[in-house]
Amino acid sequence: MEYVVLLLLVLGIWLLRELRPKSQWPESNDPQWPPEDERWDRRSSNRASPPHRRRQQSPAPFDASSSRPANTNEVLKGSAYVVDGDTITISKRQIRLFGIDAPEMNHPFGKKAKWALVALCKGQTVRAEVIASDDHGRSVAKCTLPDGRDLSAEMVRQGLAIDWPKYSNGAYLALEPDGVRKKLWLATARQKGHMHVWHKFEASKKAD
User: Fold this and answer.
1) Region (Disordered) spans which residues (predicted)?
2) Close Cβ partners of 151 (under 8 Å, ≥ 6 residues apart)
3) Which of 47, 55, 104, 202 is catalytic?
């Protein structure tokens, strides 16, 4: 009798599972959990994208308001990871090239400036003589290649950066090709404090 009751109990459980509404979600260990139509749609979700899929953001600029002279003996050496046309990283230390201003990555010639700097630094040991640091650990440095070439000077010579007299005292001004300040007009506008020109450009890009 006990076996009959047990058999009926098992049969009843099986029937309940088979006859449950089809819309009910399956067990959590089901390989299709959750149902296909209930899965998270990454395209429409407001959640942040996974870190490896996030768009690389432009590095924060050097904070001149909190800058302080660095130890004149501080020198970094090593392979350089190029962030943009005037910013590199050596041993996880962000370094702004001394005395110049290159276009931002989303500005005209920004990507070209970055790849020109990549070509200069590729396979080279870069020497960075730190001049100043800010409160966020970013540094300004005179960066040179093993053959003595100044990376700031090379970027200006190629017409992919302009001298920034406020910080360089005009050290690279004579190296600027003719017409480069019209070509890199957004960098020129920044030096003149005309940031409304930037805002107008960026608004037009968002509208496209």
Assistant:
1) 24-71
2) 88, 97, 117, 120, 121, 126, 143, 144, 145
3) 104
Kindly report, residue by residue over 171-206, the tens digit of the pLDDT. Answer: 999 999 999 999 999 999 999 999 899 889 888 888
Q: Going along the chain, which residue ranges are E strands? A: 68-69, 75-78, 81-84, 87-90, 93-97, 100-101, 126-133, 139-144, 162-163
Among the options 39, 55, 138, 176, which is catalytic?
138
Q: From CA 100, how far away is CA 115, in angstroms rounded? A: 16
Q: Give me the pLDDT at residue 145, please.
A: 98
Q: How confident is the model at residue 37 (pLDDT cuts 50, 70, 90)?
A: very low
Q: What is the pTM of this model?
A: 0.67
Q: Is 2 a catalytic residue?
A: no
| Active-site residue, 53 included | no
Instruction: Single out the residue of 176, 189, 81, 94 nearest to residue 135, CA to CA.
Output: 94
**Mapping DSSP to helix (H, G, I), strand (E, B) and coil, where does residue 24 land?**
coil
Whole-angstrom Cα distance, residue 68 to residue 138? 11
Catalytic residue check, 127? no
| d(C-alpha 104, C-alpha 80), whole Å | 19
Are 146 and 125 contacting, i.e. CB atoms less than 8 angstroms apart? yes
Domains for the chain: give ranges and CATH numbers: 64-207 (2.40.50.90)
DSSP character at residue 11: H
